[in-house]
Amino acid sequence: MSFSVRLTREALEDLRRLEEFLIEIALEHGDFDLPLRAVDAIRREMRILETNPYTCRKVGSSPLERELIIPFGRSGYVALFEIISESEVAVSAIRHQREDDYH
Length: 103
Hints:
- The protein has one domain (4-96): YaeB-like fold, CATH 3.30.2310.20.
- Strands 1-5-4-3-2 form a 5-stranded mixed sheet.
- The radius of gyration is 14 Å and the shape is elongated.
- It starts with a strand and ends in a 7-residue tail after the last strand.
- By secondary structure, the chain is an alpha+beta fold.
- The chain is built from 3 helices and 5 strands; from the N terminus they run βαααββββ.
- β2 (57-58) and β3 form a beta hairpin.
């Protein structure tokens, strides 16, 4: 079974926000590959949603609302998503693990 993965407008905005933050950190510390490595890690881990979204942990009361843990460095990211149908997953938010919560 294969799922198409769709990012909502909010999730795309989250990615832009995270990328801007990573660029600032890269400039501050001279680690210019940091944003690219983070985006690659997010992209690589999100491939799990194409084949195995049910393996991710449940959140809330709906068994179809879940979150994907994306390891990166000493922490990582978390993607909130919902299994929409037998063939579609919608990612609604992406945050750094040290952020308080989804926006």
